[in-house]
Amino acid sequence: MDYVAALVPPVVMAVFFIALVRVIVKTQGGAAKAKEDAAVDAALARTQTGQGAAASTTEA
């Protein structure tokens, strides 16, 4: 029975790891990708406009 106790933790971790990889792969692309890309683009635009405003106020 010691071998069962020794094998259970790696098997459980392998199952959770496979499930995690499947979730990551399934959530890539599609509508979720478009929403994430839009959020990143909006954040980049806010960052760039913030830097542009800060640069113009320091130069004047």
How does the major sheet shape up? none
Which radius of gyration do the C-alpha atoms yield? 23 Å
Question: Residue share in helices?
Answer: over 70%
Q: Tell how many strands the DSSP assignment holds.
A: 0
Q: How far apart are the first and last residues' alpha carbons, in Å?
A: 78 Å
Mean pLDDT: 84
Measured by DSSP, the beta-strand proportion falls in: under 5%
Overall shape: it is: elongated
Uncertain stretches of 5 or more adjacent residues: none
The secondary-structure element order is HH
Number of helices: 2
Estimated structural class: mainly alpha
Which key terms come to mind for this protein?
60 residues; mainly alpha; 2 helices; elongated
Q: Describe it for me?
A:
- The chain has 60 residues and is an all-alpha fold.
- The chain has 2 helices and no strands.
- The protein has helices spanning 2-26, 30-59.
- The radius of gyration is 23 Å and the shape is elongated.
- It starts with a helix and ends with a helix.
What's the quick description here?
With 60 residues, the protein is an all-alpha fold. It has two helices and no strands.
Describe the secondary structure blueprint for this structure:
Elements: H1 2-26, H2 30-59
